[in-house]
Amino acid sequence: MGIAATYNETFMDVRRIIAESYLAAGFTDEFTVKLAAISTLKHFKSGEYMMRDDDDSRDLMILADGKAEVRTQAEDVIGFLKSPMPFGEVAFLDGKRRSGSVFAVQDCTVVQIPEQPLRDLLRSEPEMAVRALMNLSQILCDRLRKANQQIAALNAIEEATL
Asked: Which domains can be identified in the chain, with CATH numbers?
Protein backbone atom coordinates (compact mmCIF):
# COMPACT_ATOMS: atom_id res chain seq x y z
CA MET A 1 0.00 0.00 0.00
CA GLY A 2 1.39 3.40 -0.96
CA ILE A 3 1.85 6.38 1.32
CA ALA A 4 -1.17 8.20 -0.14
CA ALA A 5 -3.42 5.16 0.33
CA THR A 6 -2.20 4.70 3.91
CA TYR A 7 -2.79 8.39 4.65
CA ASN A 8 -6.29 8.25 3.14
CA GLU A 9 -7.17 5.12 5.15
CA THR A 10 -5.90 6.73 8.37
CA PHE A 11 -7.82 9.94 7.60
CA MET A 12 -11.01 7.94 7.03
CA ASP A 13 -10.46 6.09 10.34
CA VAL A 14 -10.00 9.38 12.20
CA ARG A 15 -13.08 10.85 10.54
CA ARG A 16 -15.18 7.79 11.44
CA ILE A 17 -14.01 7.80 15.07
CA ILE A 18 -14.80 11.50 15.45
CA ALA A 19 -18.22 11.05 13.80
CA GLU A 20 -19.08 8.20 16.22
CA SER A 21 -18.05 10.13 19.33
CA TYR A 22 -20.31 12.10 21.66
CA LEU A 23 -18.31 15.17 20.69
CA ALA A 24 -19.64 15.11 17.12
CA ALA A 25 -23.38 14.84 17.81
CA GLY A 26 -25.07 17.19 15.35
CA PHE A 27 -21.92 17.95 13.35
CA THR A 28 -22.13 18.34 9.59
CA ASP A 29 -20.01 16.02 7.42
CA GLU A 30 -18.04 19.08 6.33
CA PHE A 31 -17.13 20.00 9.90
CA THR A 32 -16.22 16.40 10.75
CA VAL A 33 -13.84 16.38 7.77
CA LYS A 34 -12.25 19.66 8.95
CA LEU A 35 -11.88 18.26 12.45
CA ALA A 36 -10.32 15.05 11.14
CA ALA A 37 -7.87 17.09 9.06
CA ILE A 38 -6.31 18.63 12.19
CA SER A 39 -6.34 15.37 14.19
CA THR A 40 -3.90 12.49 14.48
CA LEU A 41 -4.00 8.91 15.70
CA LYS A 42 -1.82 7.98 18.65
CA HIS A 43 -1.18 4.55 20.09
CA PHE A 44 -0.51 3.70 23.72
CA LYS A 45 0.61 0.37 25.14
CA SER A 46 -1.11 -1.22 28.10
CA GLY A 47 0.37 0.30 31.26
CA GLU A 48 1.14 3.70 29.70
CA TYR A 49 -0.37 7.02 30.69
CA MET A 50 -2.19 8.84 27.90
CA MET A 51 -2.23 12.00 30.01
CA ARG A 52 -1.03 12.82 33.49
CA ASP A 53 -2.56 14.83 36.28
CA ASP A 54 -1.14 18.38 36.32
CA ASP A 55 0.23 18.09 32.75
CA ASP A 56 -0.01 21.38 30.85
CA SER A 57 -1.32 19.80 27.61
CA ARG A 58 -4.81 20.96 26.62
CA ASP A 59 -5.42 18.74 23.61
CA LEU A 60 -8.79 17.05 23.36
CA MET A 61 -8.75 13.29 22.80
CA ILE A 62 -11.18 10.58 21.80
CA LEU A 63 -10.62 6.97 22.82
CA ALA A 64 -10.88 5.03 19.56
CA ASP A 65 -10.02 1.56 20.81
CA GLY A 66 -9.00 -0.14 24.06
CA LYS A 67 -9.82 0.41 27.70
CA ALA A 68 -8.59 3.16 30.00
CA GLU A 69 -8.99 4.33 33.57
CA VAL A 70 -9.26 7.86 34.89
CA ARG A 71 -7.11 8.23 38.00
CA THR A 72 -6.53 10.85 40.65
CA GLN A 73 -3.12 12.18 41.60
CA ALA A 74 -3.13 9.55 44.40
CA GLU A 75 -3.70 6.86 41.71
CA ASP A 76 -7.27 6.12 42.83
CA VAL A 77 -9.45 4.96 39.93
CA ILE A 78 -12.40 7.33 39.60
CA GLY A 79 -13.74 6.33 36.20
CA PHE A 80 -13.41 4.28 33.07
CA LEU A 81 -13.31 5.31 29.42
CA LYS A 82 -14.83 3.38 26.56
CA SER A 83 -14.75 3.97 22.84
CA PRO A 84 -15.57 6.50 21.35
CA MET A 85 -15.48 8.67 24.46
CA PRO A 86 -13.84 12.13 24.41
CA PHE A 87 -11.55 13.04 27.28
CA GLY A 88 -9.28 15.91 28.23
CA GLU A 89 -12.18 18.34 27.88
CA VAL A 90 -11.73 19.99 31.28
CA ALA A 91 -8.24 21.31 30.49
CA PHE A 92 -9.32 22.22 26.96
CA LEU A 93 -12.29 24.21 28.23
CA ASP A 94 -10.78 25.97 31.24
CA GLY A 95 -7.21 26.38 29.93
CA LYS A 96 -5.69 24.99 33.13
CA ARG A 97 -3.54 21.95 33.81
CA ARG A 98 -4.96 18.43 33.59
CA SER A 99 -7.24 17.51 36.50
CA GLY A 100 -6.69 13.74 36.28
CA SER A 101 -4.62 11.03 34.67
CA VAL A 102 -5.76 8.59 32.00
CA PHE A 103 -4.09 5.18 32.15
CA ALA A 104 -4.22 2.56 29.37
CA VAL A 105 -5.49 -0.71 30.86
CA GLN A 106 -5.19 -2.31 27.40
CA ASP A 107 -3.41 -1.17 24.26
CA CYS A 108 -5.30 1.95 23.17
CA THR A 109 -5.70 4.04 20.07
CA VAL A 110 -6.64 7.68 20.54
CA VAL A 111 -7.61 10.50 18.20
CA GLN A 112 -5.68 13.54 19.37
CA ILE A 113 -7.17 16.93 18.49
CA PRO A 114 -4.58 19.64 19.21
CA GLU A 115 -5.76 22.56 21.29
CA GLN A 116 -4.84 25.57 19.16
CA PRO A 117 -5.96 24.23 15.77
CA LEU A 118 -9.23 23.15 17.42
CA ARG A 119 -9.73 26.59 18.94
CA ASP A 120 -9.01 28.19 15.55
CA LEU A 121 -11.47 25.85 13.82
CA LEU A 122 -14.19 26.55 16.39
CA ARG A 123 -13.69 30.31 15.95
CA SER A 124 -14.11 29.96 12.19
CA GLU A 125 -17.24 27.77 12.51
CA PRO A 126 -19.49 29.37 15.16
CA GLU A 127 -22.46 27.04 14.60
CA MET A 128 -20.27 23.97 15.08
CA ALA A 129 -18.55 25.61 18.03
CA VAL A 130 -21.90 25.93 19.79
CA ARG A 131 -22.67 22.27 19.06
CA ALA A 132 -19.23 21.15 20.25
CA LEU A 133 -19.49 23.16 23.46
CA MET A 134 -23.02 21.88 24.10
CA ASN A 135 -21.82 18.30 23.55
CA LEU A 136 -18.86 18.78 25.90
CA SER A 137 -21.19 20.39 28.45
CA GLN A 138 -23.49 17.37 28.25
CA ILE A 139 -20.54 15.04 28.88
CA LEU A 140 -19.43 17.11 31.87
CA CYS A 141 -22.98 17.26 33.26
CA ASP A 142 -23.32 13.48 32.98
CA ARG A 143 -20.02 13.01 34.81
CA LEU A 144 -21.03 15.49 37.51
CA ARG A 145 -24.36 13.71 38.06
CA LYS A 146 -22.54 10.38 38.44
CA ALA A 147 -20.08 11.93 40.88
CA ASN A 148 -22.95 13.42 42.90
CA GLN A 149 -24.65 10.00 43.06
CA GLN A 150 -21.42 8.38 44.24
CA ILE A 151 -20.92 11.06 46.90
CA ALA A 152 -24.51 10.63 48.07
CA ALA A 153 -24.02 6.85 48.30
CA LEU A 154 -20.81 7.28 50.30
CA ASN A 155 -22.52 9.78 52.61
CA ALA A 156 -25.39 7.32 53.17
CA ILE A 157 -22.92 4.58 54.10
CA GLU A 158 -21.09 6.94 56.46
CA GLU A 159 -24.35 8.04 58.11
CA ALA A 160 -25.45 4.43 58.56
CA THR A 161 -22.23 3.62 60.45
CA LEU A 162 -22.56 6.53 62.88
From this structure: 3-161 (2.60.120.10)
